[in-house]
Amino acid sequence: MTSFANKRENQVGMRSFLGREGEPVEGPYSIDHITYANPDTGYAVVRMISADDPGAPPIVAVGSFLQPRTGECYYIRGTWHRDPQYGLQVRVSSALPEAPRSLEALERYLSGASIKGLGPHYARALIKHFGEDTFRILEEGGHRLEEVPGIGPVRARTIRESWASHRGIHR
Q1: Helix axis angle, 103-112 relative to 120-130, nearest 10°?
Q2: Is 50 helix (H, G, I), strand (E, B) or coil?
Q3: Closest Cα partner for 51 from 96, 81, 11, 19?
Q4: Angstrom distance (rounded) from CA 57 to CA 120
Q5: Secondary structure (3-state) at 34
Q6: What does the DSSP assignment read for 60-113?
Q7: How many CB atoms lie within 10 A of CB 140?
Q8: What is the DSSP string of 12-27?
């Protein structure tokens, strides 16, 4: 079985972006896909996208992420490691949750972060309507959500309640 990282290595010039075994990795990333997660131990295998450079190739990261969710952002520290079965990946030594840093990261977060009433369509609509103020508006209670085309009172209430129940996760 070929891992995602190995496929990327086989593309011309990609290896230099992925790093070499033993090299450190540090920075903000958001979870693009969860391959495996153990809810009892927090151990997970995830594909992540750089929050600082969304155009960079994704990385595969393994380690403790507590309860990972697609779209969530983490500041990670780790080292490149070549697993004999799955190939090049980042062995994470520290993964600290953090708020999304860019509009792209915020849209990914809202699309996949288990916020009821949101998905890719409404996340995109919120970002389009509120732009840089989206996170602040949600943190302040989301009272302006109905300004967004397609979001009525019922969906707005669902989003507000879900956002409030996840409040500790966003910070």
Answers
A1: 150
A2: strand
A3: 96
A4: 21
A5: strand
A6: EEEEE-SS--TT-EEEEEEEEEEETTTEEEEEEEEEEEE---SHHHHHHHHHHS
A7: 10
A8: TTTHHHH--TT-EEEE
At 112-133, the pLDDT tens digits run 767 888 889 999 999 999 999 9
Measured between alpha carbons, how far is 87 from 111 in angstroms, rounded to an integer? 29
**Which pTM was predicted?**
0.71
Length of the chain as a residue count:
171
Sign of the torsion angle spanned by Cα atoms 91, 50, 113, 135? positive
Contacts made by residues 143-150, CB under 8 angstroms, sequence distance 24+: 148/122, 149/125, 150/121, 150/122, 150/125
Distance CA 51, CA 44 (A): 19
Cβ-Cβ contacts under 8 Å for 144 (sequence gap 6 or more) = 130, 137
Q: Report the candidate in 49, 44, 59, 43 with the shortest Cα–Cα distance to residue 28.
A: 49
Q: pLDDT tens for residues 30-78?
A: 998 999 999 999 999 999 999 878 788 999 999 999 889 888 889 999 9
Contact 46, 60 (CB under 8 A): yes
- What sign does the dihedral 99-103-105-106 (CA atoms) show? positive
